[in-house]
Amino acid sequence: MKILHYALGFPPYRSGGLTKFCVDLMIEQQILGYDVALLWPGQMRIVDKKINIKDRGEYILSTQKIQSFELINPLPVSYDEGINDFNRFTLKGNKELYINFLKSYCPEIIHVHTLMGIHKEFFEAAKECGIKLVFTAHDFFPICPKVTMFRHDNVCKKVDSCVDCPLCNSTALNLNKIHLLQSRQYRILKDSYLIKKLRKSHRDNYLSEETADNSNKVIGNPFDYKKLRKYYSDILQMMDTIHYNSSITKMVYEKFFTLPSNTIIPVTHCDINDNRVIKNFNHNILRIRYLGPASKAKGYYLLKDSLDMLWKKRKDFILDIHFQPTEKSEYMKIHDRYNYNELKDIFNMTDILVVPSIWYETFGFTAAEALSYGVPVIVSENVGAKDVLDNQFGIVINDFNEANLKKCIDSLTMQDLADMNKNICRSYEPYTIVQMTKDIVNKCYLPRGD
After folding, report:
1. Among candidates 217, 230, 226, which has minimal Cα distance to 170?
2. Looking at domain 2-269+434-445, which of 3.40.50.2000, 3.80.30.20, 3.90.1150.10, 1.10.510.10 is its CATH number?
3. For residue 177, what are the contacts with CB-CB under 8 A and spacing of at least 6?
4. Would you say 385 and 272 are in contact if contact means Cβ atoms under 8 Å apart?
5. Which of 9, 288, 292, 436 lies in the 20 to 30 Å Cα band around 314?
6. Is the pTM of this model over 0.85?
């Protein structure tokens, strides 16, 4: 089977959960004997605006070589910063070019991981060529240009009407910045000390704010954003199968779209393996771990407020975090950013992982990572990973707020955690990259009933 993936690109140029998922899936598919390639949105040229696809040869990932195709002059990639230039983000593509490319490469499956950067005509070309289209819903970009549907410290109440979209998207990156971020020069310099420092400063400020400044000049109106959503809806209608990674993702998408055949398959990555061990809870300090960024949407500030209240009552816990907070509380223990090869040491020193997302978290790898090491997990009702979290392995908090999170943590005993750990070791089966890859092939790629 010949599979063409479309995603944002290869690491280290691209990073994050979407890239990790796509890369690990491609590697495993290659190991299983499939012919795999990646098409990705590349540079946007200033003078020559002609759309083209360049064969960039084989990209080495782990022990595998993945064919790389760069889309020259794609649509802009907005990341999670919003859209306010509607014409540029829906620019007509060259269908004939796409048809010729697809006839040349001859994929049997096109697996789409994002709608950012790719023209609608690419999908029309695939349909004309009779190629099966599969879309994995990693985020909510087709619904919300800011990806998160998060506004004013909560899930946006006006997503359906798009009333707040003009203001919320007023801080979107301008085209000059997007040109820079998609340039070959940026790909080369991205991991330089200065660029990394600038990126970190921008992301820290962006994640801590999460909302647009009400003084910003708005561009467009709600109708423009409804029209943009219709544009993405039309693309989704061309998919043969929608792959949802959780019931949360399916629930949100189906509030806004009537979509084709779909299936729910949880996601994983190659670093999630069976590392379950019986842990020792014979100590007096509760070791709580948070592995997300300093983000309102990810629930960091809600977690901090909950623990600030709990600290007034008891002093027998610590919170391990992996970033430098703007305000440090006494109970915090601060660590550097971590790599996957540090997870064993991290979870050896963790009694409970908290995933307190306020926004709709399509899945949440950190919950699965913790369970794979035998660590109990507390998640909010909005975290997709709750699908794999049996109540004997951790706690799902409904009606999620500071008071209920505080109450939940306060009520936990070391014996409760020891029991959860034993249940995980006895009954939980980590979902491996091998099993996920086979499930995606069988449930998304092959005809139903095969």
Report:
1. 217
2. 3.40.50.2000
3. none
4. no
5. 292
6. yes
